[in-house]
Write a structure and sequence with these properties.
Layout: H1 20-37, H2 49-72, H3 77-106, H4 112-123, H5 127-135, H6 151-173, H7 178-202, H8 204-209, H9 211-231, H10 240-256, H11 269-281, H12 289-294, H13 297-304, H14 306-323, H15 330-356, H16 359-362, H17 366-392, H18 434-437, E1 441-442, E2 453-455, E3 462-467, H19 469-472, H20 475-485, E4 488-494, H21 509-525, E5 530-534, H22 547-561, E6 567-571, H23 581-587, E7 597-598, H24 599-602, H25 605-617, E8 621-623, E9 634-635, E10 638-639, E11 642-643, H26 653-658, H27 660-668
Parallel strand pairs: 1-4, 3-4, 3-5, 5-6, 6-8
Antiparallel strand pairs: 2-4, 7-9, 10-11
Length: 669
Amino acid sequence: MDVASAPAATETVRRAPFRPDIEGLRAIAVALVVLYHARVPGLGGGYVGVDVFFVISGFLITNHLAAELTRTGRIGFAQFYARRMRRILPASFVVLAVSTVAAALVMPPLRMPEVVKDAIATALYVPNMWFARQGTDYLAETAPSPMQHYWSLGVEEQFYLLWPLLLLVVTLLVKRSRSRLVAALAVVVAGSFALNLVVMTIAPTWAFFSLPTRAWELGVGGLVALLLPQVVGRRFTGSPVVVGVGLLLVLASAVLYDESTAFPGLAAAVPVLGTALAILGGAQGTGALPGTVLRSRPFQYLGRLSYSTYLWHWPLLVIVESRLANKVPLWASLALAAASVPLAALTYRYVEDPMRHLGALTRRPARTTLLAGLAGSVALVVLAVGMGQWSASKPLATSRDAASTGLTAPPAFADDVPANLTPSLRGVDADIPAAYADSCQLEYAASALRDCPYGDLTSDRVVALFGDSHATQWLPALDALGTEQGFRVDLYAKSGCPSADVVQTSDYDAQCAQFRQLVLAHLAENPPELVLLSTSGRQYWRDPATAEAEWRDGLAATLDALPATSTAAIIGTTPNFDGSIPTCLSLHLADAAACADDRDHVIEPERLADEAAVAAEHGALYFPAVDYLCDAETCGAIEGNILLYRDEHHLTTVASLDLADELGAFLFE
């Protein structure tokens, strides 16, 4: 799962011996995630670096809290939170402020509304919950946010809020028995792990981002901290073999996992276990190879800068890539990632370290730090809103009006963004089919059929529109046709679920198959006059080598399953661009051609040929939509004054409506 992951900073516990091997573990973790985000081949699972940080954080924080409990019988919550804030927030606030300003100055203006929301959620310490909500929204298909890496910081901050209280309560309940404390917390950790497994089957995005499904990773580190005093002196606590096995598990995960790995789930247990073993095995130091590497000067240097390196590397990559439509070569990604290290060094020297020991905060009551943190959050919210308003004031069109020629075949593409563009670039987000507001575009996890009639609701003539969101993009045209010509349109649409009987590498294949079967059964019992099939061309196949054959067979299987009395028709695949068309146009107001692309790149010729061939074999109609959107070589962004796409691959409602007459003439005349 290609999601940005930034670890929260962790400080060496006061009065506890410094563990240089843990500093080395930080270096490994930061290197894995940074190289993964730079798209280095062979590190498809580099995101496990954040799991390494989770375990380290849980270990160090629990070590400190347990020592305080043993020494005083209580936990100074205000002092604890103040120390955490002095360690985490200064660098976090600086990078967040710089990223917000840089985004407003550099990124496409259309990205700023979401960036502002992301920055506000981050400033309020809930970025993980915000990004989880975004991830479960089927309309959210935006490029990565420069703040997305703050999600793991949110998880840790929320963990720090609850873990001390849990530790204190359980300690009192078990009457200070260390063994009972470990057993009780092990139950909590096991519960979080089990919840992670369950939520992975229901809402994988929430399993990835939320504290309840991630707490077990920090909890494992906490259990190691509680167990270590009881096992120190045993052979495995000073074993290079144990350290080596732990590192091997972490590195193997980074190499063998990729974006298709169901994560966290059971897979996260491997890097978590590996980190726990490395911490246990290095408890008494080891002069053998693993310990020597972890304690080496390069590893110590990078480990010391790991927090700020994480904070800087992601916005550097995202903000630069946003100007280049995410077409950044590997060498440039590596250079940007490398640039985060000197920035981290400056941040560590002038922000992190000084603020942690700032006398104005450390010599005053803890509430001073807490109030300073609150003030910083408020200032960041004000900054984000201000930069958003400044960005919104930028013009997003030229001064020229374009002729309202409509869509033609072959198309005549506009040279620039006209002043009378419809929908406008700022208004395109609201230009979506009514099915979304009507809850008729089923979400990924849904499968139950819904009654979704459009067009002439009183007519006995029925046209069924069946497919994914690419079927729904044709609803405006069919709704208008139905109202005009007297037929009802029944919509059967589910996001990410093709009408063709194929299996993809998706977390929701089971729900998709169930939905498809329910639709076909319903159509068999209630045969419509016409069944229209339309599906996105951007699928994620189990085996790309067999994808073309699977698609042909799956489309044929669906056509075979339709009622014999119904006319069948396929609306051909439409283009899928590498990036959002409105976002691109907001950067190229005077050169709309910069957002066009080669026809064979944005739509597979094989897919078009397969659709037409299967339609012909089954006596089905085939509407070549691509002929109105692309010429022989190019697929453009604007025709006349009509904006064609609302994102990378969905037609605007205006474009769909403009093609209603052509579609109606093809289907009914």
